[in-house]
Amino acid sequence: MTDLKAELLDVALEAAARAGVFLRDGRPADLGVAATKTSAVDVVTEMDIASEKLITDFLAERRPDDGVLGEEGAATEGTSGVEWVIDPIDGTVNYLYGRPEWSVSIAARKDGETLVGVVAAPMRGETYRAVLGGGAFVNDEPVRVRPAPPFEQALVGTGFGYLAQRRAHQAEVVRELVPSVRDIRRGGSAAIDLCDVALGRLDAYYERGLNPWDFAAGDLIAREAGARTGGRPGDALSGELTVAAPPGLFEALQNRLEELGAWHD
Ligand code: IPD
């Protein structure tokens, strides 16, 4: 591992651990919605804002020349060429309701490539991590995707956006898929869903409309565990469509999603 990757991993692990403990131990019993974003159900809590501040303050101390892109508005350019992509709580609705499936997602990118990804899932007692070319790990154990099952035996994770029109179309896609796969799961944290593909707890995952902070770290972790990730056939993974699965199943799911027009609203 290069010195840069090792340093970025160390910083990402420390930042995610600090934010994870803060969120797990400091969740107010009367936590409410501080603001809404793209729709009335797209919420921000005071803890999303405080977690992003904790992480960006830590990064500013440890890597002052890096850029930052955070879900709750952090945006600095930096001069080092390294950019941090942060979701201070991925799965905010789960966190708001006291459900355990939420995470802190932190990735470091350079020259358009993700070098390091860390996803901390404190309520699971697990942290997932990967360094480009270095494999993927849960805590300190290496992880590997589950071998691809036939399409009709796949357990497929997905998620829904916050806009009603998009959700209506996403529901149509799910309606078509459910009868032809083992089952569908909607966990509520895209970062955890991608890590669950890496861990073999899901066979596959797809979602339309994610943002870089939702997928940057989980995408690298899934790939380093042996998954293929991408968007529409021939396209890289993006906000348009995010697909992750082991080779074989990946292409089958990608083609089926293309037939179903899963990339549009
Ligand atoms: C959301 C979660 C959810 C996914 C949504 C995301 P947030 O992120 O990852 O699983 O379905 O599309 O926006 O808002 O909790 O950070």
Automatic annotation (TrEMBL):
E.C. numbers: 3.1.3.25
GO molecular function: histidinol-phosphatase activity; inositol monophosphate 1-phosphatase activity; metal ion binding
UniProt keyword Iron, yes or no: no
Binding site for Mg(2+) 2: D90
Alphabetical keyword list: Hydrolase, Magnesium, Metal-binding
Cofactor: Mg(2+)
Single Gene Ontology BP annotation: inositol metabolic process
Superkingdom of the source species: Bacteria
Class of the enzyme per the UniProt entry, highest EC level: hydrolase
Sites where the protein binds Mg(2+) 1: E71, D87, I89, D214
InterPro entries registered for this protein in UniProt: IMPase, Inositol_monoP_metal-BS, Inositol_monophosphatase-like, Inositol_monophosphatase_CS
Pathway in which this enzyme or protein is active: Amino-acid biosynthesis; L-histidine biosynthesis; L-histidine from 5-phospho-alpha-D-ribose 1-diphosphate: step 8/9
Catalytic activity: L-histidinol phosphate + H2O = L-histidinol + phosphate; a myo-inositol phosphate + H2O = myo-inositol + phosphate
Protein family per UniProt: Belongs to the inositol monophosphatase superfamily.
Task of the protein: Catalyzes the dephosphorylation of histidinol-phosphate to histidinol, the direct precursor of histidine.
Protein name per UniProt: Inositol-1-monophosphatase
